[in-house]
Amino acid sequence: MKAASRSILFSVLPLLFASAVHASICSTKGIPLVRDINALSQSNYGRGGLSHITVAGSLLHGLKEVEVWLQTFAPGIRTPIHRHSCEEVFVVLKGSGTLFIAESSHEKYPGKPQEFNIFPNSTFNIPVNDAHQVWNTNQDEDLQVLVVISRPPVKVFIYEDWSMPHTAAKLKFPYDWDEKCFHSPKDEL
Ligand SMILES: *[C@@H]1O[C@H](CO)[C@@H](O)[C@H](O)[C@H]1NC(C)=O
C-alpha cells in the first residue's frame, strides 16, 4: 500500500468507527429484551446534579406510546418550569422534595403555583399542558424518580418564571436526552 493511500485509510477509519458506534447507540435493532438499567447510558446532559437514564424510549428503543425515565436530582437541583402536551406520571423511589404546579388556569400565564410535598413511595401525575417544576428541596438526600410520559419524544416548553405568558414559553425540541438520536437515520419508515 502506498503511503498516501495508507494515510487516507487511517484518517477515514476513525470516522467510520465513530459513525458505526453512533448508529448502534441510536439503532432500535438488536436491543436485548431484558436490559440492565445500570448498563444504560446515563448523563447529566450539561446540568450539574442531574442524572437521567432513558429506561425505555421512543428514539432509543422504538416505543410509540410511552417512555420511561429514571432520574436523580442532587439536593437543590430542579427541573425548569415547563409544560408539555403529554401525560406524565412520577413515582418517587427515594428522597423527597417539592412539586410546584399551576393547574390549568385560564390566565395568559401560569401564575402562582401550588406546592406539594413529595416523599418516598409517593406518586403524582401531571395533567397535559399544566406548567410544573420538580425540585429537590431536601438538603441532605438525592431525589430519585421514575417518570413515565405519553406520546414521546417529549416536546418541552420552558418558562423563565411563573408569570411568563404561555405563548412566550420556549420550545426545546428535541429535548436534551433526545438530541443525540433524533437526527440519526431511523431503522423503519
Ligand atoms: C415503598 O413501598 C414498597 C411496597 O410497599 C415497600 O416495600 C418499600 O419499603 C417502600 N419504601 C419506602 C421508602 O417507604
From TrEMBL:
UniProt signal peptide: 1-23
GO biological process: one example: positive regulation of cell division
One MF annotation (Gene Ontology) recorded for this entry: auxin binding
SUPFAM superfamilies per record: RmlC-like cupins
Principal location class: endoplasmic reticulum
Keywords: Auxin signaling pathway, Disulfide bond, Endoplasmic reticulum, Glycoprotein, Metal-binding, Receptor, Signal, Zinc
Keyword DNA-binding: no
InterPro entries in UniProt: Auxin-bd, RmlC-like_jellyroll, RmlC_Cupin_sf
Pfam families xref list: Auxin_BP
Residues holding Zn(2+): H82, H84, E88, H132
Annotated TM spans: none
CC per GO annotation: endoplasmic reticulum lumen
Disulfide-linked positions: C26-C181
Glycosylation sites: N121
Keyword Glycoprotein: yes
Cellular compartments annotated: Endoplasmic reticulum lumen
Protein name as annotated: Uncharacterized protein
Species this protein is from: Stephania yunnanensis
